[in-house]
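Table S2 (continued). Query chain:
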Amino acid sequence: MAAQKTSAVSESTSGRKPWVKKTPVEIFLEQIAKQEERVAELREALAHEERELEKLQEARTVLERK
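Corresponding output:
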């Protein structure tokens, strides 16, 4: 039974990537890259929201004219 347990454990770990130790500089650079991606996504979302706001403001001016 002990042999079966060790083989089951080795099978489950073989599917995972091996852990690679990173230097503090690599970790810091990854954090910078992730933050840049978040900022880019937020800028896109902001641009979309600003376009929607412009449309609504134009609709308001049309409605206020009447």
